[in-house]
Amino acid sequence: MQTNDHPPHWHSLTASDTLIRLDASRSGLTPDAVAARHAQYGTNQLPPPQRQPAWQRLLLQFHNVLIYVLLAAGVITALLGHWLDSGVIFGVVIINALIGFIQEGRAEEALAAIRSMLSLHAIVTRAGERHEIPAEGLVPGDIVHLASGDRVPADLRLIDVKSLRVMEAALTGESLAVEKQVDAVAENAALGDRACMAWSGTLVTYGQGTGVGAVIRRVKCSSLRSAWRWRRSRKDCRRS
To answer: Which single residue of 9, 81, 88, 137 has CA 20 to 30 Å from 15?
Structure first.
């Protein structure tokens, strides 16, 4: 079975090829296969975040070369008796630190929101029978069924859809739900054009899938989390 270390471009594979790569079938995995993959890959959930204390996050806002220059300039102007200039400089430093502190706090809240977006339960087919299981129990190769109102519990390669539309605003910025299909797309297709994929944490707004997806990447390395980390890095670059 293909692992996540060197994943293929799943959106460019046909549904049949995807099942072959994952050593899966439309009738679902057997209990032995589920147990083996669960032991190999662990649970389908984000690892607990390592939260920094608030005071440490605040102090780190001053750990910047530009801030050091401004602080030095503020001290020098104060020694020269230019109190207004030094006050303005120190004010800029403090305001910048507060803005960065607030942004990082919101970024941590966004990560917590992503964790809460994972479905509590998922409908899967295993050994030819449907089961409702906790979403963290999904393993690569599981056949997952989606319906209107569901949160997608893992990155899925769709293999059967019926008027399926998914809201992907958190991932692509699109304000309208995206209509899904099962045909493979070009390998270099943009993320928003990969209509044969359903991404972890996105919301099904209409339609349903029958034997809808083979789990190809679970939430701990999902594209939604990657997009969040990219957006946070962009904010950090702009701030610095």
So the answer is: 137
Please tell me whether residue 134 adopts helix, strand or coil conformation. strand
- pTM as predicted: 0.64
Q: Which two tokens stand for residue 42?
A: 């662990």
C-alpha neighbours within 13 Å on the C-beta side of residue 170:
23
Name 201's Cβ contacts closer than 8 Å, sequence gap at least 6: 114, 117, 118, 151, 152, 170, 171, 219, 222, 224, 225
Residue 3, classified by CB atoms within 10 Å of its CB into exposed (0-12), middle (13-18) or buried (19+), is: exposed
CA–CA separation, 106 vs 103, rounded Å? 5
24-64 pLDDT tens trace: 999 999 999 999 999 988 888 777 667 778 888 888 888 88
CA distance 33 to 38: 8
- What single DSSP character describes residue 210? S
